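Question: Now follow the chain.
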Amino acid sequence: MKLPVIKHLTQFIEANDEDFVNETIETLEALTEVPSLKDDELDVIGELISNMYGAIEVNTMIKNGTPKKEALNSFMKRVLGAIDK
């Protein structure tokens, strides 16, 4: 996951609607079923999907009253903590 991408997607959600991101996730998940995709292509799609889910989670935190910067930092700390374990 990349914080700049999540931040940009969070701004996109704020300016537009979370439904756009959810529908994009569904589309990308459907693409993973294409049998001719190579591993590196699947990795890219997976990275995009995880960043989009991260942005949705950060957006939810913001909706619940967490300041944007704090929500982004808190989310990334959780992600890094999960990777370290």
